[in-house]
Amino acid sequence: xxxxxxxxxxxxxxxxxxxxxxLVVTILISIVLSSIFTIAAMSSKIxxxxxxPIILGDLFDPESGAxxxxxxxxxxx
Length: 77
What we know:
- This protein is about 85% helix and about 0% strand.
- It is mainly alpha-helical.
- α2 runs antiparallel to α3.
- About 0% of the residues are buried.
- Mean pLDDT is about 80; it is low at about 70-75.
């Protein structure tokens, strides 16, 4: 594996940059969407009653993977 990393350092560097690019784009989209949802929930009482259960339901859904690290560390004990 070390030989591959040494011999294909340029390919690994390109793959790393592509990964970081996708990561940054995903985080920026998430920040924009969460800002829109937050402003909408703060401006309208009706929207807050609709948005908060949806967001919390998705956040605490075990299949969404948001807290999968807690579940996996619990299984290791």
